[in-house]
Write a structure and sequence with these properties.
The protein is mainly α. It contains 5 helices and no strands. It has one domain.
Length: 103
């Protein structure tokens, strides 16, 4: 069994003289504030549609090569079904701010 040491940051990895690898983030996995807002603002409008169709319509509105699966996953992260719009927007803003600190 291959046991690998997982380091929390680059500095710890360098201290042990191993090469630190940044996780690969695919462009389609990145969401902009504008895309989040489109999802949040339009979710209720299409909530009466069957699930797959709802997220296909949202993906079309959002663009950026987002699939219905991407939209479904992001809606869960933003809690658009359970939270009110303002709460979802707060979650989105926090995620966008965290992304800026990592970049």
């Amino acid at each position: 069994m291959d046991e690998r040491i997982v380091y929390e940051d680059e500095e710890a990895a360098v201290e042990d003289e191993v090469q630190f690898e940044q996780p690969v983030v695919e462009p389609k996995d990145l969401w902009t504030q504008e895309q989040d807002e489109i999802l949040i603002e339009n979710y209720q409008q299409f909530s009466s549609l069957p699930k797959k169709e709802r997220y296909m319509v949202l993906a079309e509105l959002i663009g950026g090569n987002k699939t219905f699966q991407d939209c479904y996953k992001r809606a869960k992260v933003l809690k658009v079904k359970k939270a009110d719009k303002e709460m979802s927007k707060t979650i989105s803003t926090e995620l966008q701010n965290a992304k800026r600190h990592v970049s």
